[in-house]
UniProtKB/TrEMBL annotation:
InterPro entries to which the protein is assigned, alphabetical: PHP_dom, PHP_domain, Pol/His_phosphatase_N, Pol/histidinol_Pase-like
Pfam family name, one: PHP
Protein name according to UniProt: PHP domain-containing protein
Domain Polymerase/histidinol phosphatase N-terminal: 9-77
Taxonomic classification: Bacteria, Bacillati, Bacillota, Clostridia, Eubacteriales
Length: 249
């Protein structure tokens, strides 16, 4: 089997639809910044919604970037989990379940920031009124099954951080959760993964960019049999970390 190397990726980005995301993080701006950073595959993962994913995927296509629609789900335990899908229909079906299990609260943009929906040309389509910056009623043990049923992949976000992470909120890594790997931040302490429960755990990194200047330069790559979204998603569902490597610094 021949491999196409050097597919660089960042699979955790926020747009202006996330209440904590900058209004400059428009779908088109995000795609353009990913191109400048040398990112060849990206996922838009706003909090508890996929509402700007269609616009981002369209904008990314103009730059030749492989785009996956996704979401950063907040579980009932207030753990952030990145969920990505192979197509918009699957992403929207997942969003429908998330919205069904969101508390019936309305966002206050004066407190949490606006939640702006846009098209791929950055035309404002409106604001999402649901409060997205809150926990859903979906427990973390449910997440892998819900995502897999829609053909997607998921993993716990920024497990090294002191809030909204699996380690900070649950206290340890449980292999029974069914996640094949985890995400750590670029600022992850070197000895963090030396913990007994994390020893040998495969990890990727991500920018978790809420502002344009937080989009990181390409720093990791994966070898795939084909350079497309389907191959990337299949790798994320059944990752072979022999095909993954950080780029030389």
């Amino acid at each position: 089997m021949s491999f196409i190397p050097n597919l660089t990726f960042d699979l955790h980005l926020h747009s202006c639809l996330s209440p904590c995301g900058s209004e400059d993080n428009t779908p088109a701006n995000l795609a353009g910044m990913c191109a400048l950073a040398g990112i060849e595959a990206a996922a838009l993962t706003d909090h508890n919604t996929v509402g700007n994913c269609a616009a981002f995927c369209e904008a990314a296509e103009r730059y030749g970037i492989i785009a996956l629609p996704g979401m950063e789900l907040t579980t009932a335990e207030e753990v952030h989990v990145v969920c990505v899908f192979g197509n918009l229909d699957a992403a929207l079906a997942f969003e429908a379940e998330v919205f069904r299990r969101l508390p019936p609260l309305e966002n206050d943009p004066r407190v949490f920031g606006p939640q702006i929906r846009m098209d791929s040309e950055d035309t404002v389509l409106g604001e999402e009124r649901r409060m997205l910056s809150t926990a859903t009623g979906i427990g973390i043990y449910e997440v892998p099954g819900l995502v897999a049923a829609l053909g997607g992949a998921c993993w716990p976000a920024h497990i090294d951080r002191p809030s909204f992470s699996l380690i900070s909120n649950l206290g340890l890594w449980d292999p029974g959760l069914g996640f094949p790997f985890a995400e750590v931040s670029r600022a992850c302490p070197p000895d963090f993964l030396d913990r007994p429960d994390l020893k040998g755990l495969p990890v990727i990194t991500a920018s978790d960019a809420h502002y344009l200047d937080q989009i990181m330069d390409a720093c990791q790559q994966v070898e795939l049999a084909e350079k497309n979204s389907s191959a990337l998603l299949e790798w994320l569902k059944r990752p072979d970390f022999n095909a993954f490597s950080p780029l030389p610094s």
